Amino acid sequence: MAIVGGGIVGLATARCLLGRYPGLRLTVLEKESAVGLHQTGHNSGVIHSGLYYRPGSLKASTSVAGAAAMAKFCTENNLPIKTLGKVVVATCEAELPALEQLHRRGIANGVPGIRRIGREELLEMEPHCRGVGALHLPGTAVTDYGAVARRLAELIVEMGGGIQVNRKVTGIRRRGAAIQLATTRGELEARYLINCAGLYSDRICRLAGVDPGVRIVPFRGEYWLMAPERRSLVRRLIYPVPDPAFPFLGVHFTPGVNGEVDVGPNAVLAFAREGYRRSSLNGGDLMSTFTYPGFWRLAGRYWRSGLEELYRSLNKKAYVRRARELLPALRETDLMPGGSGVRAQALDRKGNLVDDFRIVHAEKMVHVLNVPSPAATASLVIAKQITDTIAPQVESLESTRRGASASAG
Question: Which residues of the chain fall short of a pLDDT of 50?
Answer without folding.
Answer: none
